[in-house]
Amino acid sequence: MPASWDELPGFQDDALFEAWNAWVKSCERPAPAFAALCGDIRQLSIAAPEEQRAWMQARLQPYRVESSDGNAEGLLTAYYEPVIPASRLPTPQFTVPLYRAPAGLGARKPWFTRQQIDTLPEARAALAGREIAWIADPVEAMVLHIQGSGRLRVAEPDGTQRLVRLAYAGTNDQPYRSIGSWLLSTGQTRDATWPGIRAWLAQNPQRLNELMWANPRYVFFREEPLEGLDASFGPRGAQGVELTPGRSIAVDRQSIPYGTPVWMASPGPQRVLQRLVLAQDTGSAIVGAVRADYFTGWGADAGEVAGRLKQNLRLWVLWPK
Question: pTM of the predicted model, to two decimals?
């Protein structure tokens, strides 16, 4: 629905230059509607916020996003890139493998479930030799599978350490089911955040497999180098460009095209967010018009925010006039 700039909460206060890096990234693979603007966007990357704001108001029109029934209120969640210690070889400490996609993945759909991967000789044989690295904590492995990518600090056989990225490379085509929702629906806990899940597991270690197998979806990865400037950005989102912490969101691409600048307003309670973001990713759980998943960055602090963020949301797409 067409809207005025005055309708956007906090528009005059946002540090737009923080979002401009994400916008320049989107111009590496621009949506057709925005390609003609990319020359200006690149030039304005070193402009003052007042100039950036004036250009946006001159060239773009805000549209309030509503669901088909006219509801402008939706849901904001968040995701992040974990940073996890790992070993290139299995050790008594590092026992949980992270796999490349198996050779026959596309020939069998859906592929084996998570439980079958852990227990069936046929599935284990298909993954033999496909290990990228091993980590110590099965919960961290589940976090990686849900987030879709992460950073590993890998101990190599010669004793050196390397920081690498694990990027999403595919799934077993099984349905995703939230282990937090399983804990809630079976009455195991009232706190389905990651800290709550860890606390439950500490009290019920013998039920680890039962919890993990509640989610049949399994994710496969590919390894990418992580050096220099690459380390300053997140993984590539579905648009094909690197994500920017605090300025990239995942959306339902049926509602908002990749590369669209979006004004996001969320009142809390975890944190108040009124800012310019770019639609650069998607996810299987991101469904609906007023729905976004907010990329918080990498590491423990980003994970703490992402694990708890679940709050109301309003969105405005900013479309060329």
Answer: 0.75
